[in-house]
Amino acid sequence: MPLLVYNIEENIIRKARINDYLEVVKALLQFIPYGKVSTYKSIAKALKINPKLVGKIMKLNDQPIIYPCYKIVKSNGEIGGYSGSGGAKFKEKIIRSEGIEIIKSGKISREYIIDILDLIS
DNA sequence: ATTTGCTCAGCTC
DNA sequence: GAGCTGAGCAAAT
Q: For A21-47, what is each residue's pLDDT tens digit?
């Protein structure tokens, strides 16, 4: 079910584009506490969009340090992608620097992964 | 652990 | 319009 947005500038009602979600996503990212990560799925659920689109939205984020998209991983615990400099390897490194344990198989343990909806309620 | 099908906005032709 | 591509997911194998 597509979200509809009323745009005052254009004075029309249209389907939301992924740019419209970026600011919301940035805001949600700030809720994730130090030492924890959340998932693409979790954000997708909060915005009622497809999880794959969340990745696309993240890619738009031009300030990956200030708005920590590195704190978003796949729902199965794998690291996922990172388009910022250093790539997924840097993402993994910065996650570790928060004291989060990454298992040999390249996955993050469940106990570090939280649902973003739990933070808002 | 790996494969298979689903997803949908945006980009190319 | 048709076809492809992902910073993904879930069910089946």
A: 888 899 999 999 999 999 999 999 999
Helix, strand, coil distribution of chain A in percent, nearest 5: 40, 15, 45
Interval A41-71: pLDDT, tens: 999 999 989 999 999 999 888 787 788 999 9
Q: What is the pLDDT of residues A79-90, one digit of tens each?
A: 999 998 888 999
Q: CA A49, A50, A56, A60: dihedral to nearest 10 degrees?
A: 10
DSSP H helices, A1-121, are 18-29, 40-47, 51-60, 87-96, 116-120
Percent above pLDDT 90 for chain A:
60
Distance from residue A53's CA to nucleotide B7's C1', rounded to whole Å = 9
**A54 CB-to-strand C distance under 7 Å:** yes
How many angstroms is C1' of B9 away from CA of A76?
A: 24
* Residue whose CA is minimally distant from C8 C1': A52
Nucleotide nearest A45 (Cα, C1'): C9
